[in-house]
């Protein structure tokens, strides 16, 4: 949340080690979303209603400008219940201490068809036209996934509405639901408790299947329900926030800059023993501004502009041509901590390959089969990052263009299968598709942020985002290389390529 000039980030944290367990709420603060001071934990396991874990929840700024956090606790019976905390001293700019009132737990898993072990992760609260607060809680209801709706006058005493905000029989449980308003084609954010302008849409985001998915639709205030614009029975076809290693994301309205920011967690994909040796496990992706495209169909995301404050040495190239098999090395920057932005211009679409809609059901499988070494009509072209001198290790981030009956489809892959010579790592080939109008758009953009084990990529202006974790042996022994490449039969032009070394942010420095 953003409160009185300070960004607060709360996160699931084990103070006793880098393996899962003993979960409390870690707390860090920042004035710029980039450099962070770590404080003592905000919420610890001290009461019967959270003694077995202080799990996910959300912060809300109340009408008197006082923040409150509702979070899930695992109680003495290991039921999941919803609790609240308030800051002990709102004049403390860092809000170091939080108080648990005697009214906890506020909400218990009571009601027919409710699974007490699948009832968690309350959303940020919002106010309806009737002046009542609302939150949604992820749940399993009669064997189906649901975002249960609760109302309150005072944010403390809650009553469950007799119908969910939305439910689906396509899955059994949604974790970390998020609900927010967006204006089509406008990258400004909306405060859900303020007056929502005409023409706005609402987004319901949920975490399941090890990824974050979302629906765009309308919030019917009269019936207090979310109505998706499109309902797809096969959840494999649901839109995704990120097509890589990205989960449990949470958005908030940044009143400082009038934008909505979403933030996701990316876990380690090496071993538990590696986590113990590092002394930490799990990182957050770069915070992203998130908004809805002008067609009201797709969310777009872009790293917050503050990340550019870390840029240092810059290299720039214009007017490159990449023919079949070409590798262009990007030199003059620190390839272990880098920001690369590259535009690809297609010289011909005559040889574009046909699109098969069945690929949408398992895009990772298609990325494995059509990898960066296999020549296509238009593509693959993109970046090779964190590459060893002999290319035994490299991570490929690339595009392929396909033609369906009425439109062109762009496949974006982040292929980790050759990212490391270490055995037994999880090295998938992530992928996502987006549509493109090649008559209007002449270029396809790619932005990749690299920070040692993190490779975070944004394709087509943020239409597909892929967060990846890689652990090359090359990182330990020497520097790495970076290339732009083309393995398609059609030549690809690069009108613009820019790359920067990135400074190290000050993260979780202890002060005060």
What does this molecule look like?
This protein starts with a strand and ends with a strand. Strands 26, 28, 29, 30, 31, 32 and 36 form a seven-stranded mixed β-sheet that branches. Helix content is 4%, strand content 47%. The longest helix has 7 residues, at 272-278. The chain is mainly beta and 512 residues long. Strand 3 (24-30) and strand 4 form a beta hairpin. The protein contains three helices and 38 strands. Keywords: Glycoprotein, Glycosidase, Hydrolase. Residues 306-501 form the Glycosyl hydrolase family 32 C-terminal domain. Residues 1-303 form the Glycosyl hydrolase family 32 N-terminal domain.
Instruction: Tell me, briefly, the overall form.
Output: globular
Indicate the proportion of strand residues: over 45%
Q: Enumerate the spans where pLDDT stays under 50 for 5 or more consecutive residues.
A: none
- Alpha-carbon distance between the two ends: 21 Å
- What structural class do the secondary elements suggest? mainly beta
- Radius of gyration, in Å, reads 23 Å
Q: Report the total helices.
A: 3
How many β-strand runs? 38
Nearest-integer average pLDDT: 96
Helix coverage percent of residues?
A: under 10%
- Profile the largest sheet: 7 strands, mixed
